[in-house]
Design brief:
By secondary structure, the protein is of the alpha+beta class. The protein has one domain. It has one helix and three strands. A three-stranded mixed sheet has the order 1-3-2, covered by helices on one side. Strand 2 and strand 3 form a beta hairpin. The protein is elongated. The termini are far apart. The structure holds guanosine-5'-diphosphate and magnesium ion. Magnesium ion binds next to helix 1.
Length: 65
């Protein structure tokens, strides 16, 4: 465990730029709702990527301007 690394990644940006799409691609399964209308994501959705020596927790932000 001594080389294990972990951290959070927040995905921020204007609405409809592809944040949820990116998160889904990174996590590898569809966990966030995607649509071509604004404010589809209303709550922060965490995607967790586990690797042998690391864990990344992704946070998809619901609204940005
Ligand atoms: N052309 C293009 N469309 C994309 C790309 N990524 C996402 N989209 C589309 O853009 C729209 C908004 O994507 P979404 O992930 O919901 O954006 P969010 O509001 O930032 O979370 C959807 O219709 C996606 O299919 C991309 O790289 N290229
Ligand atoms: Mg979204």
């Amino acid at each position: 465990m001594e080389n294990f690394k972990s951290g959070f990644v927040s995905i921020i940006g204007k609405t409809n730029v592809g944040k949820s799409t990116l998160l889904n691609a990174l996590v590898g399964e569809k966990i966030a709702i995607m649509a071509n209308k604004t404010q589809t994501t209303r709550t922060a959705i965490k995607g967790i990527v586990n690797r042998e020596n690391a864990q990344i927790v992704f946070i998809d932000t619901p609204r940005n301007s």
